[in-house]
Sequence to fold (88 residues):
Amino acid sequence: MAILTPGGGPVSHVTGPSSRVATWLVEGNYTEFAFTLMTLVGFSFGGVLSGVMVGNIQFRLKKSYGSVLLLESVLLVVAAGNLSIILI
Fold:
């Protein structure tokens, strides 16, 4: 899954945004720096949370992934709602 941020950066891979964080910090663009840093932290936290909820390194079809997908869906809806409020 890839999501585009309001700045146009994808959050499916973190190499590009990581580079931009350093660039924006050096250039003094603190708004973009903070936004991208929060995006990276959120992406990382989501990965850790999913790993904790699933709780196993090996994929097992009988393992329940429904709760992780449900939580992800709820968080995406909440984030989209907050984004639409911010953009209005």
About this structure: DSSP finds three helices and no strands in the chain.
